[in-house]
Structure formats: C-alpha cells, structure tokens
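# step 3/5: fold
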Amino acid sequence: MFGEHDVEFGVNMETMNIPTMEVDWFTSENRDLSKIYLGGLPVSELIDRYKFSLSDLEAYLPLDRDKFKKSGKEFHFYSYYKNWNFHDNYYYAVENSGFMPSSKRLEGGYDKYASMDDKIDWLHFYTFHTKFGIGRATAATFQEIRAGVITREEGIALVKRFDGEFPIEYLNDCLEYMNITEQEFYDITDKSRPDHLWKKEHGAWKLRHPIWEE
C-alpha cells in the first residue's frame, strides 16, 4: 500500500478511477546493473568500488517484472480508499502508529511533520521556490485549503510568512554531498530564477507578483 494517488496533485487524471500503481514504475524487464544508477553511479560500479553484494542493494532496485506479475500481488494507493490531506493524515498516523513529528517547525513551512523523509527535502523546497516561485508553505497550504482545514486567507498569510525561507538546517550536509561550496550553491540557484518571476531590489530577490499582493 502506497500513499497519495497522482490525481491528488492534478496529474494523470485519466487514472483517477484506477486504485493500482502502474507496474512500470517499480519493475523492470531487464535489470542491467550497468544501466541502473544509485547515487549517481551504476549499480555494477557501486558493487565493484565499495565491495557491496547484490543483496546489499536489492531493496533499492526495481523488481523483476515477470516475477512480480506471477506473484499475483498489486500495489494500491491508500488515498483511493481514504480522503487524503496532510493534516488528517498526521493525526491518524500519530494515533495509530509510532510516528513522531519534528521537535521544531520545518524551515520554509509551518508544520512539523510533512515531507521530512530525508535531509534533501529542505533543499528541494528551497530550489523549487527559486525556480517556480512557490515553496514548502505553498505545497502545504494548497492541500489544506482544498481539504477545508484552513481558509485561503489563512493560507496566503502562511505563504507570506514562511515560503522561501532559507534551509539552514541541513545545508552543509547537502553541500558536502554535492561537493560544492556555499557560494557555488548561491550562484547556481540564483541562475535558476526566471526573470518573469523574480527581480532584485536593494540586493535582495523579490517575487514580481506575490500572491499576497493580488
């Protein structure tokens, strides 16, 4: 059982009445380890370079398609069976599992529980904001507005306060992983800011058409 269906985000609407996940997403007919990449390297090279065994990496590889189909198993989207929104999911998880939220608010957002799977989530939402003008707070508010948890006015206020907040928490970990300096990070992200979305005023980047100025 997986989480939200694609249609929760307005894509692949033709599959809205199909509860199962497309098998091509997680299976492969030909598991050529030289053509499957993990962490930027072919699996075959990972095995040779770091002395991994195939079983060490098996959990990260696509399933054998023929074996999966013969098993009779199916992967289903949980949101096909239960009304999906982050707010209700959080309370359900807390009440029915051992899930624990972060001890502090997640940078760029206003909650302590959504999209905190790994350190690069913080960087993802920040670069998403530089490229598209929307960030972690927008990603949360549009879900909660649609679900009736907050009003549009409340959502706009949250976006104005938190969207695009710089991700200090795990920045050094991400820079070390990408093998770049902090200045290189700034240079790269600033180049990704489209002119029709951003302008620079007094040395600071500003959105040209923020939602709170509609």
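# step 4/5: annotate
The radius of gyration is 21 Å.
# step 5/5: archive (pending)
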